[in-house]
Amino acid sequence: MKKPEVRLGELLIGKKKITKEQLEDALAVQKETGEKLGEVLTKSGYISEEGLAKALSEQLRIPYVSLSKGNLKPDLEQDLEEIIPARFANANKVLPISKHLGSLTVAFIDPLNLMLKDNIRKITGYNINPVITTNSEITTAISEFYGKDSALRDAIKSTYGEENEDGSLLKTYEEKEDEDFSLDNILAKAKEAPVVKLVDLLIKQAVEERASDIHIEPFKDRIRVRYRIDGILHEISPPAKHLHMAIISRIKILSRMDIAEKRLPQDGSFMVNLNNRLIDLRVSTVPTSFGEKVVIRILDKSSTPLELSELGFSSEESEKFAKAITQPYGLILLTGPTGSGKSTTLYAALNKIKDPTKNITTIEDPIEYRFEGINQVSARPDIGLTFATGMRSFLRQDPDIIMVGEVRDAETATICVRAALTGHIVFSTLHTNDATTVCERLKDLGIDPFLINSSLLMVIAQRLVRRLCPECKKGYEPTKEERNKLGKFGENVDMIYKPQGCEYCNMTGFRGRVGIFEMMEMNDRLRRSIAKELPAEDLRQIAQESGMRNLWDSGMEKVAQGITSIDEVSRVTLTIL
Question: Cβ-count burial of 152 within 10 angstroms (0-12 exposed, 13-18 middle, 19+ buried)?
Fold first, then answer.
């Protein structure tokens, strides 16, 4: 049955997305400019692009798709760019997603444009199955599919072999499965130019998009490829399932791993030179039920801030930290979950205090960045070189400053404390949720409270929040509830910002990350409280009375400064107001 024609303005009023007055204003503007009504409404701020698309989706019962959901990704194996050419897609803001039998799924920003839908049906010869998205999302998706992804698509296609006149492949991996699973043929396939090019492109694109990790994950009938950008995983268009083994083997060859071993996890590394930048890649494989999963950590020193001023410290915090790291002895601990920037902060500290007059030694697992003038040791637990054994050796090497990658056990904790008490400055990390629970954690590891008192200089808990994109962040007047969340930082603030999305930030609304910090500087009152073994809650109150600012307040200051959003700070902190 044919759906009744729907007028956009009436639809949005009926769903209480806009008011009658707003519609009248928008219609007046539309009459003057000739723009589409939806564009006028979003430009006027009466409704967001996403709100408009979702309202239409619900009313018309058409699926809503987006890049963040991963369902606005055309199938790379179906030659969709030949069915709807790039020029037509850009001119009409449409994108082919997939085809099945006689049906073609196409993303629209205006599914009410029945004439456009009918034109596509006539041009392509397919019945059109519409889905809806936003203008900004489809612009990015079109650019990626017909632009960035075209090289990746060509590389994927070239691995299939030559085509027959009817478009079918002469041979596929499945058709010669027994042959391809032999070790010699896997090795040969991994060294073929198309596979080499495909892996190179996956890495190159990840670096260009500022990804910190590449995840290549096999499932029953597909591969999933994801990039972690600014701490969030984003799915990209994947290669075909049958290329999985060749891709993994190519990565193993580069990483000097055993390509014949598929039953055990392996670790490796290699370096690439991209635009005269040496980039270190750390590779980890694990066996899963559908094959080996690979994660590639991208360590790009050129993009890592190694100055304290760039990390996100306030001027007061920066001054306190600089004072602590230049002390002649003591223990400085950084705490937070994996990926919260602890190692970067430690490297920035070492970078600030390194000096030809000082002997600086580190033991890390692994060494993430190499520094001139610093003795760096890579932990090798498999041969007995642990953090603890490395520390014991360091103490016989006349050190001034020691950095230990992580305090993982009682032995390492004990040696760190002893080193701090015998005239060395010691840096390390610990996994706790906040600064004040570090004391309880050290006690759990067998450190006596009086030793904690004597050795501990400072504890910093930190998280990373995403920076709002400077090109598209949108200012607005905070609500009463938001002012309450901002606390004292909202008193003189007329405007705060939220993410919007543009090509510069790949439609995420964010670009880059910055730290928020909880800095507990030891003083006599805190030391007496630790000696009395007061619980973490009491230590927190005393620390705050002594000037410590918690993670939430640190984040709210950055919201007031227009650096990030309230929702982003809420995402990474445990504070509940």
Answer: buried
* Residue closest to 296 by CA, chosen among 304, 284, 278: 284
The CA distance from 348 to 515, in Å, is 13
Cβ atoms within 10 Å, residue 314: 15
Say if strands 266-274 and 277-288 run parallel, antiparallel, or are unpaired: antiparallel
The SS3 assignment for 78 reads coil
Amino acid at 573: T
Q: How far apart are CA 373 and CA 353, in angstroms?
A: 11
pTM of structure: 0.69
Using CB atoms within 10 A of its CB, is residue 411 exposed (0-12), middle (13-18) or buried (19+)? Answer: middle
Q: Output the CA torsion 186→189→190→194 (10° steps).
A: -160
The top-scoring range by mean pLDDT among 152-156, 236-240, 374-378, 489-493 is 374-378
CB 555 within 8 A of CB 485: no
- Edge-first strand order for the sheet with 425-430 is 375-378, 360-364, 401-404, 425-430, 330-335, 456-468, 510-521
User: For residue 26, what pLDDT band results from cuts at 50, 70 and 90?
Assistant: confident
CB 122 within 8 A of CB 148: no
Q: What is the mean pLDDT of residues 440-458?
A: 92
- Residues 400 and 237: their CA atoms lie apart, in Å, by 50
Residue type, 344: T
Q: Are 464 and 513 in contact (CB under 8 A)?
A: yes
| Highest-pLDDT range among 174-188, 227-241, 449-463 | 449-463
Phi, psi of 281 (to 5 degrees): -120, 125
* Interatomic CA distance for residues 358 and 430, integer angstroms: 25
Q: DSSP assignment of 296-307, as one string?
A: EEEE-GGGS--S
Average pLDDT, stretch 30-48? 79
- Residue 360: predicted pLDDT: 93
**Ordered DSSP codes for 456-501:** EEEEEEEEEEEEEPTTT-EEEPPPHHHHHHHGGGGTT-S-EEE---
Which pairing describes strands 401-404 and 425-430: parallel, antiparallel, or unpaired? Answer: parallel
Phi, psi of 423 (to 5 degrees): 95, 20
Out of 45-59, 270-284, 414-428, the most confident range is 414-428
Tell me the sheet residues that pair with 249: none
Check whether 213 has a pLDDT greater than 90: yes
pLDDT digits (tens, 9 = 90+) for 314-331: 888 999 999 999 999 999
